[in-house]
């Protein structure tokens, strides 16, 4: 982490912003021009320039410059300027996210953990697609997001209140049985929906087992599945 030195401050830029926002330091006493000159000199002497680091600097520098301009010229500040600063920060944060995503894709492609398939698609034209051979969740995947997806799958099953009388017979189904069931469907149809797979499911456990069976068959390259959007229908396609 790069450190900056002025007459009133020495340390990383993040610390300077934190001290100013906590009103532990007066922004009007900080020479922002000197900080900018130091950073430009640092970039000129750098063999490799990290775009993510530059984006970090611009976010903090823009905020410091805005705070200082408000302190020196309070009568010129306006809500529109606040929105412009927030928009700039948002754009730079998005830029960082795209950089991180691009680097992640480069690493995945370098490992060559994917295979190619041919797909006619809706237009009937042959196209070549690649499919990852293993599950690679995004880094920002959270437990809450997983819970939402599983709740969506479980939502296929409508809860029905039934009064059971007499002896309760427990029926268990294995993932092997569901795999065989889906394989039989693949013999009849090259494409069908996940809701068709679970339309006769008797309980939530069977829905979960069905979903795991689909994942296993996708791993074995017997099928692929796609989803147009969050919580939309899951389409299962047979692979040759």
TrEMBL record:
It holds the Pfam family SMC_ScpA. PANTHER family: SEGREGATION AND CONDENSATION PROTEIN A. This is Segregation and condensation protein A.
